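To: structure desk
From: M.T.
Subject: fold request, one chain
Message: Could you run this one when you get a chance? Sequence is below, nothing fancy, just the single chain.
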Amino acid sequence: MTLELIIFVASILFGILLYWRESKSNKVYRFFNKLMYSKELQMKSDSKKGFIFQQNFLLRLVYITVLFLVTIVVVQFILPISVSLVQWFVSAIVGTLIGTYLANFILKSSDVIGEKSESFEDVLNESINKGKEFIDDLKTKDTKVVEEAKKEIKEEPKKEEKSARQRLKDKGLM
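Reply: Done. Structure tokens follow.
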């Protein structure tokens, strides 16, 4: 179980690395595209699509599975030990898929933050200014409240009135 968890975490990191690498350059995908398709069907020169980058889930799953199948076949020929690699294989595929989607999220959010950085600075400065204005308002309101309280204290105190019970006694109702 521990080795599977280590493979899973390592494959998440591998998926992030793979996605990031394909987002920067898709030369391998372009090579296979030129190899497989005729001139009319080849991808456009401005397309950034790769094996994993900008692919839907099913094609991503197929490409990652083929990558790990080839890796396992090579490992089986190099190591003469026959080990059941199915659990490790599945955890590596799932981890790599999760890593690619995690990298997609990270890259998209960094792009959004880069685009919105100027407006973010404006919003931050505006909120700081509003906070300063609010604090100034609180300071001025406090002095106004204190001044009004002092005026009320300086005014003549109200005459002591009889309580409701005393008034009823005076009328003879109690």
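Reply (cont.): The mean pLDDT is 78. Let me know if you need anything else for the meeting.
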